[in-house]
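REVIEWER CHECKLIST
Item 1: Sequence provided? yes
Item 2: Single chain? yes
Item 3: Sequence as submitted:
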Amino acid sequence: FVIPPFDVQVSDVEGFMDELQAFQSIFHDCFARSEARAHCLDYMVGQYSPLARKSIEPMALAVEGSRIRSLQRFLSETVWDEEQMRWNYHQLVADALGEPDGVLMFDASGFVKKGKDSAGVARQYCGTLGKVENCQVGVFAGYASRQGYALVDKHLFLPEVWLTEAYAARRARCQVPAEVTFRSKPQLAAAMLHTIVHEGLLPFKYVVADCLYGNSPDFLDAVDACVGVTTVVAIPSETRCWLQRPRTEDRTYLDKGEERAKRVVVAPHSAPCAVAAVAASLPVSSWYQRTVSEGTKGPIASAFA
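Item 4: Structure as written out by the authors:
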């Protein structure tokens, strides 16, 4: 499908504010007070403005009728129903983009941070830079169909160090809930997948992710629980596997003084083999090629069986 050119004309955005107000009104039931609804609209208008720096103060000064302190309080103190907001948004995405053969995509992305006080900030791998850097990392769920694509969910990744006693003061300053426990990126993705399936709003047939998620039993179990879904999840070619699921059990072990659980195979009927060996054993007639991306140096093609 050809990506449409973004040659936007003035006539294309006539009535934009009316449409933005109509869109924002869909989320009115997520706020308990009318003032919060008004501040939400002001914030959205500020984000759509041509300002180079879109922090609260310049946006509040640029939006007619908005006040700096009110907008700051809206973001830092106002409570809204996030679950209801996500439900409303997923309903919009389903109505506009939903198709039975839709695709759910899971991946992480990093955001460079210079300071130390933002929730979850630490020296960790930042995909946008391709190296370890001081940053925050989020795990995201995207939805795509022939009608378009959209982000549909997100979770902030908290490194394990953030849940230690040494970081108690930082957690308090960032208002990290006391009940939060460490969850890996694949576990966060599995939780989002479970929520989307439980809601039943977004129709999809495919789930795609890279090998970080393909190496996670938690994520693969979450995908396996989706009946009728085709999985396109990368795993290293040397990964050992069985063509028929063997019996497994969870066993506990100590890691740096902490008890952890690990899934192990119990009395397998056959030895595992590498994924590369399974691929090599398939007949040539089973394989076909598809262009999966328009790369910077030409089309990128992959083989499928």
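Item 5: Key structural point noted by reviewer: The chain has a mean pLDDT of 91.
Item 6: Recommendation: ____
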